[in-house]
Design a protein that fits this description.
This protein is an alpha+beta fold. The protein is built from 17 helices and 13 strands. The structure holds adenosine monophosphate and magnesium ion.
Length: 490
């Protein structure tokens, strides 16, 4: 652990770097604290990774800081300027309307820096008509899902702690406000580049690219191909993250370019959802009437977004270099997705003929509305003598035909059933954050009971092993889960 406090360790890297720029990369702003703050949850595991002791994290000073009260601190807090395409349409300037970055926390002696950002700590220069607040309900969803994604091994922004208090926010009704401390290697979005590109400011585009290279890819600083490498990295990491989303049944819901991280991490958890029954047409955002961001559209939307980003690199790269970067997306996505899906069904390596096996399975699952997470977890136990997973299907004859081919494929590799089960259980989670689970935690939290948030945080951090205390979350979702509706209003 570090001897210095969080406040002492906070750098103002982004702030100092761009303060001297001719272009406006951010706007300085102080958070507006939550009235009578109290903890909803503290994430001790993440704190440890950041070198923050449990005592410091849960202290009164930290509560004050994390609920937006910087009275006794000399912190250059700011909100960043960005623009973006929303639902395929240029939306112009957006920016951190309710997110305020405190600075970057340095980890030990390494050069690694993590942004600390408060979400919901009041209005900023980019709030437009918004109140700068986030309600407890949506903050719990973001808090839990960031950590659930991390637990699944998927690149994501993290969540250090969540506070609430007497401050309220008006949505469809008056609700408790909350402040989430979001932690990320970078909060820079595709939209930060678009902001300057569409303002006809290639100098600022270059400044932003240089900043990213200096902070995250310092080995490339003198490389003449550095801008190519930056764009290529974004293409490849995005492809990998989306392949992982598809493999766990995660639907983001608002894949606007301002919600896409330049490092390819999952960012901005709003109306997201995990699949219950496998349904490629699943739309988790009730405001998405056309289904632009449906589950099956995510891989191609990510490429659409990358195209929008790549356009901004036209002042840094030749057309053929840009095309070359973008061309890598499909291959990377497909090879990652195929490898993960092959591993999910217990294959040591993906072979071209496995595509049929995997596709057939997904077609059957969609037809019979088989629960995505439960099925793959149950499949870990599958063998010639144990085919109870068959019970998930209505059309059992069709399953038997598939199972015959699957058994043949398994027989062609040298792995015992026990070994296969072990490796499959490390990739097929027992728990994902289904909407109804978040809802249970929210309803209890709104009455002041945060124990369900704590329980979910614990199990989702480690979703591949059974947690006896969470047995209730190992089955199918209850019928009322279908009635939950999530939209952007948060
Ligand atoms: P989102 O759909 O959550 O990614 O938000 C889109 C834009 O609206 C971003 O610029 C947000 O910062 C802004 N925004 C969303 N909610 C609020 C709010 N309550 N107050 C101010 N700005 C907001
Ligand atoms: Mg956003």
């Amino acid at each position: 652990m570090n001897n210095k406090s969080i406040q002492q360790r906070l750098k103002c890297h982004f702030y100092s770097h761009f303060k001297v720029s001719d272009s406006t990369f951010f706007s300085a702003v102080s958070p507006q604290p939550i009235d009578s703050p109290s903890w909803v949850s503290t994430n001790v595991d993440l704190a440890e990774m950041l070198g923050i002791s449990a005592d410091e994290l849960t202290s009164d000073e930290c509560l004050q800081l994390m609920s937006g009260d910087l009275t006794h601190n000399d912190i250059n807090s700011f909100s960043a300027a960005y623009s973006g395409h929303q639902f395929g349409v240029w939306a112009g300037q957006l920016g951190d309307g309710r997110a305020i970055t405190l600075g970057e926390l340095s980890i030990g002696d390494s050069e690694e820096l993590w942004d600390l950002q408060l979400k919901g700590a009041g209005t900023t220069a980019y709030s437009r008509f918004g109140d700068g607040r986030a309600v407890l309900r949506s903050s719990i969803r973001e808090y839990l899902c960031s950590e659930a994604m991390h637990g699944l091994g998927i690149g994501t922004t993290r969540a250090l702690c969540l506070t609430t208090g007497k401050t309220t926010a008006v949505r469809e009704q008056v609700e408790s406000a909350a402040v989430l401390c979001r932690v990320a290697k970078s909060h820079i979005r595709f939209g930060n580049f678009e902001h300057f590109h569409y303002a006809n400011n290639p100098k600022a585009v270059k400044e932003l690219a240089d900043y990213l290279i200096q902070r995250h890819f310092s080995d490339w600083t003198d490389n003449p191909k550095r801008y190519y490498l930056l764009l290529e990295n974004c293409v490849l990491t995005t492809a990998r993250t989306i392949a992982q989303w598809q493999s766990v049944g995660f639907c983001h819901g608002v894949m606007n370019t301002d919600n896409m991280s330049i490092l390819g991490d999952t960012i901005d958890y709003g109306p997201f959802g995990f699949l219950d029954a496998y349904n490629p047409e699943f739309i988790c955002n009730h405001s998405d009437h056309q289904g632009r961001y449906s589950f099956k559209n995510q891989p191609s939307i990510a490429l659409w977004n990358l195209n929008a980003l790549a356009t901004c690199f036209s002042s840094l790269l030749d057309t053929h270099e840009i095309t070359d970067c973008l061309k890598q997306y499909e291959n990377e996505y497909l090879s990652q997705y195929r490898t993960i899906m092959a591993t999910k069904i217990g294959l040591l390596e993906y072979q071209p003929k496995d595509e049929h096996l995997i596709n057939q399975l997904l077609i059957m699952m969609a037809k019979d509305q088989v629960d995505y997470t439960l099925f793959f977890r149950k499949l870990c136990d599958f063998s010639a003598t144990n085919q109870t997973v068959r019970d998930y299907f209505i059309d059992r004859d069709q399953f038997d035909i598939w199972a015959k081919g699957y058994l043949q494929r398994l027989a062609a590799q040298t792995l015992s059933d026990k070994q296969r089960k072990q490796s499959m259980q490390q990739i097929n989670p027992l728990y994902v954050l289904r909407n109804y689970m978040a809802q249970m935690a929210i309803e209890a939290a709104e009455k002041g009971d945060y124990s369900e948030v704590e329980l979910l945080l614990n199990i989702l951090n480690n979703p591949y092993i059974a947690h006896p205390e969470a047995k209730k979350y190992e089955g199918l979702p209850p019928d009322w889960a279908n009635t939950i509706s999530v939209s952007c209003s948060s």
